[in-house]
C-alpha cells in the first residue's frame, strides 16, 4: 500500500509537470511495484464461491514436448493441389496430483501481446514433483487457449483441477502463441486436431511403465476446456460440423484445408472421439461469422457447459455463444453468463503486473488482453473454478453432490438468501448454492436438455 500511495502522489505531481521524465518515472515505479507484488495464478478472494478453493491434493507440474507427425503445414498451403506436410510440435504443461512433499513453484514464458516479454508466474505446483503414490487413475482434462495465447493463459484452472484429482494438460498451440503468431488459417484447422492428438498422446504415455503418468490417467473420462479459438475447436470436438460456405471463405484456411471439418463429411465424423465426456466452452468463436448453422450444431452430442460475457464483441453473445447454446439440441448443456462482461470473461489469468506498463515500441494493449472493464478477473476466475469443479465433478467423477451446485434459479438476482442465526437454511432459501450472501449478483445460469 505504501508503494501504491507513493505512485499516486507522483502521478498527481506529474500531471502538473507534464514532462517526458514524468512518463518514464511512472513506468519505473510501476515496474518496481509489479516486481514486488508478483504474478499469482492461485488467488482466492474472500468472497469466492465454495468450490473455487483448491482441493486437498498437492500438485506437480511438468512440461512435455510432443510431435504430431505428418500434418499439413497450413502456413505453406497455396491451393488444394499443394499440401506440404511437417511434423507439428506441441508443448504441453501437465499438472497432476503429487506426493505432497513441497508446495509452490513458478512458470516463465512470453505472456504479453508484444510476443517478446518474458514473465514469471507463481502458483502452487512443484516442478517435476513425484506423482502421488496410488494405483488410482485420474480423469483427464485438456485445456485449449485462445488466439493468441499459450498454455499458461488458463493455468489457474490447471492447478485447481489437479488439486482435486484430475490430470490437467494445457496445450501450446503452435502458430497461435504470443511469440509465433501465424495466420488464422492454422488455428482454424489445427485446434480440433491438436485437441484429439493430445488426448491420444497422453493415453499412449500413460501406458508406458517408464513414464511418470503410467497408470495415473483414465482417458475414458476426458474433459476439455476451450477458450475463444480453443472453444471453437471444442465445439468441433463436441460434434459440430462447420458450414461448407465457411470452409471456402477468405476468412478461413487456404486451399480447402477446412473441408474435413464440414458437417456431414466422413473426415469430420472420423475426428469425433467418445472418450470426451464433458466440455467447457468459453466464448466460442465462429457463430457470429457464419462458421456454424443450426444443422451443423445439431451434431453436438457431448454434454457442454458454455460460459460467456453478455457484451462479448469478439465471439458475439446473442448471435454467438448464446446461439450455439440454443442450437446444440442433441446435448444436455448449460450457459453461464457474466452480465456486461466482454470477451475476456472467465478464462484468462489476472493481468500480469508487467502488462500495467506499455511496452516501449509496441502499440498492443497487453493489459486489455487479460482484463475486463466491468468484472474483476480474479473474481471471474474463482467463479469459473467453482462451476468447472461442479460440472466435471458431476460429469467425470459421477459425484451426485455436485448436482445442487448446478440446479439453480436461472437469474441469480431472483435467488433469496434466507438463513437462521445459526446459519441454517430456511425453507424460502433459493440463493445459489456455494455463494455467500450478495455475491452471486450479475450472473445467469441457463440449462437445456437434449431433445
User: What does the largest sheet look like?
Assistant: 10 strands, mixed
Distance between the termini: 55 Å
- The shape is globular
Number of helices: 11
Q: Tell me which oligomeric state these chains represent.
A: single chain
Q: Give the strand tally.
A: 12
Helix/strand order: HHEEEEEEHEHEHHHEHEHEHHE
Mean pLDDT, all residues: 91
- The fraction of residues assigned to DSSP E strands is 15-25%
List unreliable stretches of 5+ residues.
1-37
Helix content: 25-40%
Strand order of the largest sheet: 5-1-2-7-6-8-9-10-11-12
* Class from secondary-structure proportions: alpha/beta
Computed CA radius of gyration, to the nearest angstrom: 22 Å
Amino acid at each position: 500500500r505504501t508503494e501504491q500511495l507513493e505512485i499516486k502522489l507522483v502521478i498527481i505531481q506529474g500531471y502538473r509537470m507534464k514532462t517526458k521524465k514524468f512518463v518514464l518515472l511512472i513506468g519505473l515505479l510501476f515496474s518496481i511495484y509489479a516486481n514486488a507484488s508478483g504474478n499469482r495464478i492461485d488467488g482466492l478472494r474472500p468472497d469466492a464461491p465454495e468450490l473455487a478453493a483448491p482441493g486437498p491434493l498437492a500438485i506437480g507440474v511438468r512440461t512435455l514436448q510432443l510431435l504430431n507427425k505428418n500434418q499439413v503445414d497450413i502456413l505453406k498451403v497455396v491451393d488444394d493441389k499443394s499440401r506440404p506436410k511437417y511434423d507439428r510440435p506441441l508443448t504441453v504443461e501437465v499438472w497432476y496430483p503429487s506426493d505432497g512433499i513441497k508446495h509452490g513453484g513458478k512458470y516463465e514464458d512470453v505472456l504479453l501481446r508484444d510476443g517478446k516479454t518474458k514473465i514469471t508466474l507463481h502458483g502452487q505446483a512443484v516442478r517435476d514433483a513425484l506423482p502421488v503414490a496410488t494405483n488410482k487413475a485420474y480423469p483427464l482434462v485438456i485445456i485449449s487457449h485462445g488466439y493468441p495465447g499459450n498454455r499458461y493463459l488458463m493455468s489457474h484452472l490447471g492447478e485447481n483441477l489437479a488439486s482435486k484429482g484430475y490430470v490437467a494438460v494445457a496445450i501450446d498451440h503452435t502458430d497461435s502463441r504470443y511469440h509465433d503468431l501465424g495466420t488464422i488459417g492454422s488455428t482454424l484447422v489445427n485446434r480440433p486436431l491438436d485437441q484429439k492428438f493430445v488426448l491420444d498422446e497422453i493415453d499412449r504415455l500413460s501406458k508406458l511403465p517408464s513414464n511418470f503418468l503410467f497408470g495415473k490417467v483414465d482417458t475414458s473420462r476426458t474433459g476439455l476446456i476451450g477458450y475463444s479459438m480453443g472453444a471453437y475447436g471444442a465445439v468441433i470436438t463436441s460434434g459440430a460440423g462447420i458450414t461448407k460456405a465457411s470452409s471456402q471463405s477468405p476468412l478461413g484456411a487456404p486451399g480447402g484445408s477446412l473441408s474435413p471439418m464440414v458437417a456431414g463429411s466422413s473426415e469430420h465424423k472420423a475426428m469425433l472421439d467418445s472418450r470426451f465426456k464433458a466440455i467447457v466452452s468459453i466464448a466460442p468463436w465462429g457463430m457470429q461469422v457464419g462458421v456454424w448453422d443450426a444443422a451443423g450444431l445439431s451434431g453436438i452430442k457431448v454434454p457442454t457447459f458454455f460460459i460467456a460475457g453478455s457484451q462479448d464483441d469478439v465471439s458475439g453473445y446473442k448471435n454467438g455463444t448464446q446461439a450455439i447454446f440454443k442450437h446444440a439440441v442433441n446435448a444436455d448443456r448449460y450457459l453461464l453468463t457474466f452480465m456486461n462482461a466482454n470477451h475476456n470473461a472467465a478464462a484468462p489469468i489476472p493481468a500480469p503486473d508487467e502488462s500495467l506498463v506499455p511496452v516501449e515500441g509496441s502499440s498492443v494493449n497487453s493489459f486489455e488482453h487479460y482484463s475486463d472493464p466491468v468484472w474483476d478477473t480474479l473474481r471471474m476466475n474463482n467463479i469459473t473454478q467453482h462451476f468447472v469443479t461442479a460440472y466435471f465433478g458431476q460429469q467425470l467423477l459421477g459425484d451426485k453432490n455436485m448436482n445442487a451446485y448446478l440446479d439453480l434459479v436461472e437469474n441469480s438476482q431472483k435467488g433469496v438468501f434466507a438463513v437462521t442465526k445459526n446459519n441454517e437454511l430456511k425453507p424460502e432459501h433459493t440463493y445459489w448454492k456455494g455463494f455467500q450472501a450478495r455475491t452471486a449478483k450479475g450472473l445467469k445460469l441457463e440449462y437445456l436438455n437434449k431433445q
